[in-house]
Amino acid sequence: MKKIKVLAIVGSLREGSYNKQLALAAKEIIGDRADFEIVDYSDVPLFNEDIEFPAPEPVQRLRNKVLEADGIWFFTPEYNHFFPGVLKNLIDWLSRTSKGVPQVFARKCAAISGITPGMSGTGIAQDHLVTLLSFLNMRIMNFPRLTIPNALQQVKDGKLELTDSKPYLEKQVEAFLKFVQKELDCQ
Ligand SMILES: Cc1cc2nc3c(=O)[nH]c(=O)nc-3n(C[C@H](O)[C@H](O)[C@H](O)COP(=O)(O)O)c2cc1C
Questions:
Q1: What is the atom index within ligand 1 of the atom nearest the CA of 81?
Q2: In which domain, by residue range, is 90 found?
Q3: Is ligand 1 within 6 A of the CB of residue 14?
Q4: Is 18's C-beta closer than 6 angstroms to any atom of ligand 1?
Q5: Residue 62 has what DSSP assignment?
Q6: How many domains does the chain have?
Q7: Whose CA is nearest to atom 6 of ligand 1?
Q8: Which residues have a Cβ under 8 Å from the Cβ of 87 and sit 6 or more positions away?
Q9: In this structure, are strands 34-38 and 159-160 parallel, antiparallel, or unpaired?
Q10: Residue bearing the CA closest to ligand 1, atom 17
Q11: Nearest Cα residue to atom 18 of ligand 1
């Protein structure tokens, strides 16, 4: 059986990002059951149709990574009840289809998680992200999604030490691996 490839896209470029640390925790839980890569897209420029063709190298690199992946797992903070602009910018770049370039997100499986020091748990941002990913024709695993509020209760010296939320992340890992495998079996 082919090893599943999961690409993690974190909606925060912050070095100590809790969402990045959550992605790393998911990677650890997955272990060798799937390839799991957290992509660095900090070099992707702001979208501008004037520089769209030929696609800048970072965009082409990211496009290829999404194309090769079986599942995309979004780990996103919430900014003003939305997902951050850097994530929207990346998705806008990768969503472009004209001139023979495929829309790379189409029919890819998607999982969504988020963690915040606030009380919302990133749920509102996730709902907005679902709207966008649905428009891009992704196969979204709507249940379970993971929303972690009050992050600082599980952070020590800037390091995320998942306690209460770990069983939920474990459940989401199991569910997503099954979800992706089921989609692959149907192809
Ligand atoms: C511009 C801005 C807006 C924010 N708005 C929200 C919000 O609407 N809800 C929330 O729970 N936290 C909000 N926060 C706090 C972020 O959740 C917090 O900075 C979080 O640590 C960012 O994620 P990261 O640790 O992965 O970088 C906001 C932060 C910024 C910078």
A1: 8
A2: 4-186
A3: yes
A4: yes
A5: H
A6: 1
A7: 79
A8: 9, 11, 74, 76, 129
A9: unpaired
A10: 116
A11: 116
CATH number, domain with residue 181 = 3.40.50.360
With the most atoms of ligand 1 within 8 angstroms of its CB, the residue from 79, 86, 115 to mutate is 79
- Helix 166-186 vs helix 18-30: angle between axes, to the nearest 10 degrees? 60
Assigned token pair, 165: 């939320």
Give pLDDT tens digits along the chain (187 positions).
789 999 999 999 999 999 999 999 999 999 999 999 999 999 999 999 999 999 999 999 999 999 999 999 999 999 999 999 999 999 999 999 877 889 999 999 999 999 999 999 999 999 999 999 999 999 999 999 999 999 999 999 999 999 999 999 999 999 999 999 999 998 8
120 lines ligand 1 (CB under 6 A): yes
Q: What's the token pair of residue 173?
A: 């890992």
How many residues does the structure list for the chain? 187
Give the C-alpha separation, 62 to 175, whole Å.
Answer: 25
**Ligand 1 within 6 A of 150 CB?**
no
Task: Check pocket membership of 71 for ligand 1, CB cut-off 6 A.
Answer: no
* Secondary structure letter of residue 11 according to DSSP: S
pLDDT score recorded for residue 7: 98
pLDDT of residue 118: 96
